[in-house]
Amino acid sequence: MTRGGARAAPPTVVATGPAVPLAALGYDELVERVVGLGLPASHADRLVRACVRRGVLDLGEVGGLGPRGVAVLSGALRVRATTVVERACSLDGTTKLLVGLEDGERVESVLMPLARSFSGCVSSQVGCGAACAFCASGLAGLRRSLLPGEIVEQVLHLADEARARGRRLGNLVFMGMGEPMHAYDAVVAAVRRLTDPRLLGFGPSRITVSTVGVVPGIRALAREGLGVHLAVSVHAADDALRRRLLPVGGRWPLAEILDAAEEFRTTARRFVNLQVTLLRGVNDAPEQAHALAVAIAGRPFHVNLIPVNRVEDAPFEPPTQATLDAFRAVLVAQGVVAHVRTRRGADVDAACGQLRRREASRAAPGSGPAFPPPPADLH
Ligand code: SF4
What we know:
This protein has helices spanning about 25-35, 40-55, 65-75, 135-140, 150-165, 185-195, 215-220, 240-245, 255-270, 285-295, 320-335, 345-365, and strands spanning about 20, 75-80, 85-90, 95-100, 105-115, 120, 125, 140-145, 170-175, 205-210, 230-235, 270-280, 300-305, 340. It starts with 19 loop residues before the first strand and ends in a 16-residue tail after the last helix. It is α/β, with parallel strands linked by helices and about 375 residues long. Iron/sulfur cluster binds near residues 131, 135, 137, 212 and 374.
């Protein structure tokens, strides 16, 4: 106390080191950092309510921090480290965001309209090392995995976009660029932050993590207790064909992948969807549907049939509607629950590729794109 009885202001702590992005911190780390700056712990909650849940980007607009709080926090924290550098909107309401990372790399995040909300699709890596035959990103290789905060910020950008259009972000899928099991630690950390009720509080049962069938990753994820669902790309029953289409997922026989998926379902008590990307004349014949039905017979998995998106430099075409319907009919006749997944944002696939291509060309004229992005939902 001062002589007059007034409480002395706590000493101002000047942050040392670079300002940390909010999304790079878990809740406890955020509180620790705020308190370490000589500010009340309640400022952490003010930051979360404004910047994480409502998309406030300016610390000066966060209520209740006071001028000293704003000044101190500005030196220690950044609201976002990534920016939306371009967006492409489809006629069906799908919006693709090109998100710029601090090191100049780019990833895509996609917002797809549902009946009353939006579904978001996020990337887990820059490029991808899974080398799926029909994916330009996979063919081009991996640059790096994302940081947990970079994944979380994609979700915050998508939530901003959804809010601006009067709806909430209802679901989230890890089906953008990258193989989530190859960015395992970052994906798990990001999911923990996204679902922490003290932060964004995203319902875990509204999140699906997708994989090309990395068995150790599936088994590990089953034991994380995250509460998320799983999607596994299978594409064919024939292991030799799977190895051609999915060089990484093809390292494990389909039977072993299905065993791991079943372990996930029973241990994590969450759904497993099998993804089958159909390529005309490659894996869309009725006998291939029959072989798939035999392979998954008796297992409680739903199958999503996805006509391949055309990708430049990949020689694949989607099946005809009649072939697609016939393939599904074979599965259904053998007791498999199968749905055809609607393609979203088809009219902006090229636009998005061009966004990134233009970006890459600007960086290195004449060299072409470093990594053409995969269309959303490729896994
Ligand atoms: S489809 Fe997905 S996992 Fe396969 S190469 Fe493309 S980004 Fe990677």
